[in-house]
Amino acid sequence: MSFMNVTLRQVRVFAAVATAGSFTLAAEQLCLTQSTLTKSVQELEAFIGLRLFERTTRRLRLTGPGKAFLPVALRLLNDLDTSIAELRHQAKGLRGPVRICCGTSPATTFMPAVIKELQQQYPDMQVRLIDDGNDNIARRIADGGADLGFCTLTAGASALVDSRRILSARMGLLFPRQYQPLPQRITPAMLNKLRLIRGSDDADIMAALNLGHDIATDSHITASNLATQFSLVEADVGPCIVSALAASHPSATGMPYLLLEEPAISRELHLVMRKSERISPAAQIFIEVLFATLPRTRFRHGVTLDPRYPLD
């Protein structure tokens, strides 16, 4: 048997009349004339072959078949309305998911505030954070493993993705809390006198520091994980070479931080996305919230937001 002749309006009218207990009230709720409402019920009853309502001049009530059909109609309408609303949310990018790939510094400094703002504005949006090393982020974006990412771009990575610089962060030394005597300024000549903790990916930083200076690079302690570096600093093993963005990590709160001078070296953080591809609505919303949140985020001295944001 085909049910193509049963319309959504007929089912919705039946449910409204049954719930309101009145054709007049149901007509007002649905913004229909009472004659249109009556005709829809009559057409539904004619197709079914049963009366759904008992009508008298004084009252209106459901018949047995009407009582049996009402919960089915209500469940059908509710499921349909919910499904359509979810599809509309997806079309508008309000659910996502949006996949963000980044390292520890972005994930622990400005990303928590961005996620909190997203939850408040778009409570149904799904965000998936993917932790990866800087050298792998651009490749992951290019391969479709994430929608957006944050990384310091190398020459090879620049060819894989579209990017936009969002901030620059000066390099400096993070000292143990009770370190004494704390120097007034940091120059390359002072580095050989310190028991430095280095990150495993700072070869470019050390190369820049060695220009015109004789800095020993083989006697430093190396740790690839930022949390490990902070733990070593906390244990008074020595100061650590990190960017001002990394030094904005909550674990580094209270640790003295001095910027490197002569030369002043910076690392740039870029927002990256797949090359020449239109981003999803969810990703676009994330970017808008990101650029609205960054100016309110507390960073260490040495972090400078790119003056060109938001995206053109």
Question: Which helices and strands appear, and what pairs or packs with what?
Answer:
Blueprint: H1 8-20, H2 23-30, H3 34-48, E1 53-55, E2 60-62, H4 64-91, E3 98-102, H5 104-109, H6 111-121, E4 127-131, H7 134-142, E5 148-151, H8 155-158, E6 161-174, H9 188-191, E7 197-199, H10 203-209, E8 221-223, H11 226-234, E9 240-243, E10 257-259, E11 266-274, H12 281-293, E12 303-305
Helix pairs in contact: 1-2, 1-3, 1-4, 2-3, 6-12
Figure out the total of helices: 12
The CATH superfamily of the largest domain turns out to be Periplasmic binding protein-like II
**How many domain units?**
3
Q: Quick one: CATH class of the largest domain?
A: Alpha Beta
Largest β sheet strand count, sense and barrel closure = 8 strands, mixed
CATH architecture of the largest domain: 3-Layer(aba) Sandwich
Mean pLDDT level: 86
Q: Which geometry do the CA atoms define? A: elongated
Could you walk me through the main structural features you see in this protein, from its secondary elements to its overall organization?
It is elongated, with a radius of gyration of 32 Å. Helix content is 41%, strand content 19%. The model has no long low-confidence stretch (mean pLDDT 86). The longest helix has 28 residues, at 64-91. It has three domains: 8-91, Arc Repressor Mutant, subunit A (Orthogonal Bundle), CATH 1.10.10.10; 99-165 and 271-305, D-Maltodextrin-Binding Protein, domain 2 (3-Layer(aba) Sandwich), CATH 3.40.190.10; 169-266, D-Maltodextrin-Binding Protein, domain 2. Strands 3, 4, 5, 6, 9, 10, 11 and 12 form an eight-stranded mixed sheet that branches. The protein has 312 residues and is of the alpha/beta class. Helix 1 crosses helix 2 (23-30), helix 1 crosses helix 3 (34-48) and helix 2 (23-30) packs across helix 3.
